[in-house]
């Protein structure tokens, strides 16, 4: 097999994702989804390899150590022969963080795919970013993975992004293991973190191993299932020694093994019965029960260690193989387009017709690289596939297996596996089949909350030239990154999930495309809506000189409930009779769509507005589509004021971690920024976590303020919660400023 290196690799993905229903909703009724065993599907010898396959995501709050952990996994599984640290002294950087920016900032921006072998099992791993601004990467990974490892910081415990990731895992019904990392740090406390997992995430989280030693003395783990100790020695913890449990750990082992058995009994009837009859389950019986309960989400195994100090990682790999599902145990549904979108279950059988999902695209120097998860059948190089949404056949010229920035050519992939395909043009989320008209449900794509105007010194450089290329590529790559031109000002506006998200793209434009860009002030993604109903009766009439225009529209505007960041406006044609001939109705609808994209108050999108058209009038000569479109827009504008219009702003959930001594000061700062405190919680050390809701518009410059108020020790993260009405005073101010800006632009 040939190994090729692609450096530097710039990544790209596609457009075309719509926010649609996820693959499975997490409800108690679909806990039974894992009742089918691998053996049910593996009668064909072609499927035997799938039992030995795991598709695993590694997710967590920022800085918990996912990349450091993945680096160890690659080392222990023999994929790399040297460990490089994130921001390491060797100036190389971790293998999975291969973008320059990732190495500089020491954070993961994009998910990277790789695979490893552990014993006779193959593990496809996706390292995902922890920062909420890159949440789309986590969504993409979870959509196509069968199991996940949730990495926790043993000192900070459950953090805001842990909760977001947990929610995403539930949305895609992904069974998970927890690895409590950083137990070599002062204040590391796996017991407290496990309690938080129970209390704050509602998981039946249970330690299945506990650390030996703590802080700088951390040197091994005690396996509560097999009642053995394991030491990790050698330069990189690669030499594992099994020992009997030392005397001074006997009491802790008994205590936490007891808790493990009780928690497992709550999830598993067989273990419950054995305990009632005072039988001692064997290690194999416990492992089988843990596997079953992990797959049906009634038990979450928790393992401990330190990636940086090389403790416990191999035990985590054992647990991935033992407790996370193989592709045949994961239920995946698709919609049969030939049967009115009837849901069908895909069978992870290598002998079945092929079905695959393109879940991520990258632009490489060899052209578009499409990451594909095969759900059913076998894909062989040079096969033809059917691109379902575009209704066309495509050939598959080249198949590769990815390993961070290098890859190797392969000749086929089978159901359950993940690979890269070259030479195929498609958007992210495209379903490919052997010819069947079925479509996999797509991923959840959140709406952007922040915008920024960008410009270059050279006129006309934004839509063409290097900047135009960069923007087109990033949009294709990331569905949460949007670009549009403001009609009035002619400015190019980029929108995304937060300051860091946009900052990274601006930096990439500068570095990868050598374009000097100037950026404006970040703008919040406001929305406009109405609160009451108002009738309209509008005549658009222009009959002086030339061809005239005549259109009358009658109806009403009314509010409808809206949710989160979704745009949900409705145009309803309730006309009876022929006062407005049917051929003019689409023009009215178009008028409504036009005005709802740019509301009358701030030129921001409308949401929660229904426009009902009941009646109207035409003129035998002067009526036209243009006249009806204009009439609808004007009817809307004229009556909008009568509907109590309001501006909605994004409200963020902000989680702040600070040394407790600064708590009073930081809470005062939040109140000044119009924040509402939800809760405060004392952490494992002398740190306090404050959770608050704060309008996004109030959060600019917060990181600098927090840093200076906490001697650089405070950290925060935020995520979108909902859109909420601004106060009347702020609304007046926003509208006034907007009018001034427009007047200035008009001059
Ligand atoms: N003391 C200690 N530090 C660790 C451990 N694991 C990781 N770190 C450090 O924590 C920092 C963050 O580690 P990363 O591996 O980049 O964390 P990440 O979760 O991948 O970060 P993002 O990708 O930015 O979300 C780095 O400085 C690591 O060296 C650990 O077990 N113990």
UniProtKB/TrEMBL annotation:
<feature type="binding site">
    <location>
        <begin position="181"/>
        <end position="184"/>
    </location>
    <ligand>
        <name>GTP</name>
    </ligand>
</feature>
<comment type="pathway">
    <text>Protein biosynthesis; polypeptide chain elongation.</text>
</comment>
<dbReference type="GO" id="GO:0005739">
    <property type="term" value="C:mitochondrion"/>
</dbReference>
<keyword id="KW-0547">Nucleotide-binding</keyword>
<dbReference type="InterPro" id="IPR020568">
    <property type="entry name" value="Ribosomal_Su5_D2-typ_SF"/>
</dbReference>
<comment type="similarity">
    <text>Belongs to the GTP-binding elongation factor family. EF-G/EF-2 subfamily.</text>
</comment>
<comment type="similarity">
    <text>Belongs to the TRAFAC class translation factor GTPase superfamily. Classic translation factor GTPase family. EF-G/EF-2 subfamily.</text>
</comment>
<dbReference type="InterPro" id="IPR000640">
    <property type="entry name" value="EFG_V-like"/>
</dbReference>
<dbReference type="GO" id="GO:0003746">
    <property type="term" value="F:translation elongation factor activity"/>
</dbReference>
<dbReference type="InterPro" id="IPR009022">
    <property type="entry name" value="EFG_III"/>
</dbReference>
<feature type="region of interest" description="Disordered">
    <location>
        <begin position="1"/>
        <end position="22"/>
    </location>
</feature>
<protein>
    <recommendedName>
        <fullName>Elongation factor G, mitochondrial</fullName>
    </recommendedName>
</protein>
<dbReference type="Pfam" id="PF03764">
    <property type="entry name" value="EFG_IV"/>
</dbReference>
<dbReference type="Pfam" id="PF00679">
    <property type="entry name" value="EFG_C"/>
</dbReference>
<dbReference type="InterPro" id="IPR014721">
    <property type="entry name" value="Ribsml_uS5_D2-typ_fold_subgr"/>
</dbReference>
<keyword id="KW-0342">GTP-binding</keyword>
<dbReference type="GO" id="GO:0003924">
    <property type="term" value="F:GTPase activity"/>
</dbReference>
<dbReference type="InterPro" id="IPR004161">
    <property type="entry name" value="EFTu-like_2"/>
</dbReference>
<dbReference type="InterPro" id="IPR031157">
    <property type="entry name" value="G_TR_CS"/>
</dbReference>
<dbReference type="GO" id="GO:0070125">
    <property type="term" value="P:mitochondrial translational elongation"/>
</dbReference>
<dbReference type="InterPro" id="IPR000795">
    <property type="entry name" value="T_Tr_GTP-bd_dom"/>
</dbReference>
<feature type="binding site">
    <location>
        <begin position="127"/>
        <end position="131"/>
    </location>
    <ligand>
        <name>GTP</name>
    </ligand>
</feature>
<dbReference type="InterPro" id="IPR004540">
    <property type="entry name" value="Transl_elong_EFG/EF2"/>
</dbReference>
<comment type="function">
    <text>Mitochondrial GTPase that catalyzes the GTP-dependent ribosomal translocation step during translation elongation. During this step, the ribosome changes from the pre-translocational (PRE) to the post-translocational (POST) state as the newly formed A-site-bound peptidyl-tRNA and P-site-bound deacylated tRNA move to the P and E sites, respectively. Catalyzes the coordinated movement of the two tRNA molecules, the mRNA and conformational changes in the ribosome.</text>
</comment>
<feature type="compositionally biased region" description="Polar residues">
    <location>
        <begin position="7"/>
        <end position="22"/>
    </location>
</feature>
<keyword id="KW-0251">Elongation factor</keyword>
<dbReference type="InterPro" id="IPR005517">
    <property type="entry name" value="Transl_elong_EFG/EF2_IV"/>
</dbReference>
<dbReference type="Pfam" id="PF14492">
    <property type="entry name" value="EFG_III"/>
</dbReference>
<dbReference type="Pfam" id="PF03144">
    <property type="entry name" value="GTP_EFTU_D2"/>
</dbReference>
<dbReference type="GO" id="GO:0005525">
    <property type="term" value="F:GTP binding"/>
</dbReference>
<dbReference type="InterPro" id="IPR041095">
    <property type="entry name" value="EFG_II"/>
</dbReference>
<keyword id="KW-0648">Protein biosynthesis</keyword>
<dbReference type="InterPro" id="IPR027417">
    <property type="entry name" value="P-loop_NTPase"/>
</dbReference>
<keyword id="KW-0496">Mitochondrion</keyword>
<dbReference type="InterPro" id="IPR009000">
    <property type="entry name" value="Transl_B-barrel_sf"/>
</dbReference>
<dbReference type="InterPro" id="IPR005225">
    <property type="entry name" value="Small_GTP-bd"/>
</dbReference>
<dbReference type="Pfam" id="PF00009">
    <property type="entry name" value="GTP_EFTU"/>
</dbReference>
<feature type="domain" description="Tr-type G">
    <location>
        <begin position="51"/>
        <end position="328"/>
    </location>
</feature>
<feature type="binding site">
    <location>
        <begin position="60"/>
        <end position="67"/>
    </location>
    <ligand>
        <name>GTP</name>
    </ligand>
</feature>
<dbReference type="InterPro" id="IPR047872">
    <property type="entry name" value="EFG_IV"/>
</dbReference>
<dbReference type="InterPro" id="IPR035647">
    <property type="entry name" value="EFG_III/V"/>
</dbReference>
